[in-house]
Amino acid sequence: MTNYFDDKETISPEERENDQNRRLSRMVTLGYNHSERLKTILDELGVNPADIKSIRDLEKLPVISREEVVELELQAPPFGGFCRNDADIDRIFISPGPVYEPHLRENTLWARGYFAAGFGKGDIVLNTFSYHMVAAGLTFHEGLRQTGATVVPAGTSGTEMQVRLISDLGITGYTGTPSFLMAIINKAEEMGHDFKKDFKLKKASFVAEPLLPRVRKTFENKYGINTYQMYGATEVGDIAYECGEKNGWHICEEVIIEIVDPATGKRVEDGKLGEVVVTRLNDIFFLFRFGTGDLSSIIEEKCPCGRTSYRLNGIAGRVGDAVKVRGLFIAPTQLKEISEKMGDIKFRIVITRESYKDYVTAILELEEGEADRVCHLEKRFGDLFQRICTVKVNKILIEKPGTMTDYKIILDKREWVS
Question: What residues have CB less than 8 Å from 203, skipping those under 6 apart?
Fold first, then answer.
């Protein structure tokens, strides 16, 4: 039977939305009275705090990007007018920009993600995030402690020292980036260790860097490490996390997620790709509708793990890297997923305008072979493309391997007439 961090994770979606609406309404009223920036934003828009009663009402407010947060903090240091003056702030973190972040004192910060990954009492976890100035090290440390795990604050020590800690302390878990764990494993092998046989490290929770499918497969199949992912941002904390099903990331109970069109700030259709916009419910830092710049979509189907929150369908890429086709985003990460599922074939997507409509041509590099095989691959590619990108390919062309010397995976040739 699955255990949960607390009973909030299993309430009905209706109960969750009603609770979040109440907390959101309270936060707006509190913020209007205690945040100079929020009061200015609402007054300039002619929006009364009482007008924000539900999650849907958030569209009355602007999406605020990280670049805008930096600019606002430069204008009104240190917190851009978003923080209440009488707040009991435990600590202040700094991230590049610089951006100053008052620590949101929540017992659950990152804890749900670690709990869902199986961390708990009896685990000794290597925390390889920096404890200096930035939020990562200390906040992940506290999240792990909330699960009952013992934490080794290794920080950014060199790989040889990390190997020694894993060996001497009987480390059972790891948190950090996947690339650093791979570097540690490589160092251990250089030192003559058999990582899977010699060490007790059998679980890892990653954040701050994508976990590529191939890398996950290597960790799990070759080294016997059960891997999980978490997702967050320094401005708003933890956002979502994987459970044992590893099919999407559960949205944290303390945040409201909107998936919006970056150009308009309006919600996209259910299940469609858009920018992840986050509002963290709290009574200290009144940053509403923080635009992460990341692209994702929402999974509303019930998860077999029993948690009832909606899930993010991973991160498809960044807003600036994606191209909008027929009102839907196509991101390079989606195309790379198609390539992997097709056996790492090389292809390019060319987007043109024909009869005032977007026209998608896929150019695949394939070895010459039987017509039936080529036809099968074309059909498989078309089906995969439509399933992953939710856009249909109009035409598929075949070229010989080596043709794409200037390999650009998306080529947008549309000409826009005003």
Answer: 117, 118, 119, 123, 172, 173, 174, 225, 226, 227, 228
